[in-house]
Amino acid sequence: MAEKLAASSTKEETNDVDRPWSDLPYELLCLVSSHLLAGDFVTFRAICKSWRSSPSLIQRKVPLSIDSPHFLYPCLMSVDYHKCRFYHPTYLGDDLADISELLGARICFSKYGWLLLTRNDRSIFFFNPFTKVKVELPPICSRHKVLSMCFSSPPISSDCFVLVICMEDEFGIIKRGEKNWTFRDISVGRRFGASTCNPILYRGMCYCLENIEANVGVFDPNGDDPCHMTIYTLQSPLSSWVLEFSVHQNYLVESDDGKLFAVFVVDDHDTSIYVFEVNFSNLSERKGLKPRTMVWHRVTSLGNRMMYLSPGGSFLEPAIATGTSNKIYLPMIRDNKNVFYSFDTAMYHSFTGGYSSKNSYNVQELQTCCWIKSMPELTFNRNFEWCEIELEGQ
After folding, report:
1. In the prediction, which pLDDT does 269 show?
2. Nearest Cα to 294, choosing from 274, 307, 315, 277?
3. What is the widest separation between alpha-carbon atoms in the chain?
4. pLDDT at position 69 over 60
C-alpha cells in the first residue's frame, strides 16, 4: 500500500511540474499581476495567449487600499462634487472613493502626501487622504483673486507656510501659528500676469511662470513690502518659435535632486510638449538670493526618470518600474486610462488598451486633480490645529 501511495504521489508531482503556464489558477494570476507595473505587466501578459485574454490581466482596477504597493507610485487623483477618482498609469479604468471631506472642494496643490484645497465659500484646508487628517486655515477675503497656491513643508511642521499668488501682482502668505493672512504687492515695473500653474519655493525664493510669455518671475516672499520681482526670459534658440503658437498650459517642475524645469504644452497642428531645464548662473548656495542670470536648455530625454504634470503640482523623480522611464505622465484621460507622452516615440500613449496618437485632441483633460502617493507617516497629534502654536512676538 505504501509503495502505491508513493508512486501515486510521484505521478502527481510530475504532472504538476509538466503543467503548462497557461493552466495557472485564476487566483494566482490575479495575485501576481496585482504587483506588476508598466513594462513588467506587459511582459507578463505576453507569456501566452490565455494570459493575454484573461479578464484578470486586462481589466485591472486601481487598488484603493493605502497599504497597496501601488500607492508607493503616484496616482492621479481627481475630485468633483460627487466622488473622488483615482487613476493609475498602469491600470485600466478608475476607482471611486467616498471621502466626504473632499466632496465639492477644489485641489489647489499637493506635496508630501498632503492636499491643499479650497471651497466656494473661500475656506482653505489641508487634507491627508491616507491618514484622513484635516487642518483648517483662515479663509481669504473675496477681494483677493487667487490664481495659484503652494506650501513650503508638511502642515504639521512648525516652519510651514502657505503662499498664494493673486491677480493684480499681489501675493498672500500665512505661517503656521498665524491667525490672519498677510497680503503684499509685488513690485515688477510692468504688469506680469502670473500663470495659473503652481509657483515653486526654491532656496527661500518664489518662482512663478508668466501666463503667456516664456518668462519666470522670482521674488522673496519674506522680503520687504512691496517685494521686488526680477523677471528672467527664456533664452533658447527655440523660444521664439515656440511662442509663435498658443501656449495651452505651462508648468514649473522641481526634481528630486533640486533642479528646476519649465514645461510648455503648445497647441499647433500636433500638440507638442517642450521641456527646458533651468541652468542658474552665479547662484549662491545660500538661501534667499536671486540668480544673476538664467539659461534654459531644451530637454529631449528624461533618461531613467519620469515627470508628472498636473494643475495641483508637478515633480520629476527616478523611474522604479520597468517601462516607466523617459515619459511625461499627464492630467489626461482617455477611455478611463491615464495618458502619457513618450520621448522615445514623440507620441501619446496609455499602458493598457493600445492607445497611441501624435496629438492629444481626443482626450479628457482633468482640471481639479493632482498626482499623489503615500508618504511615510510621521508621529504627531492628529488633533493639532494650524493656530495651536504661538510664534515669537505674538
Report:
1. 59
2. 277
3. 99
4. no
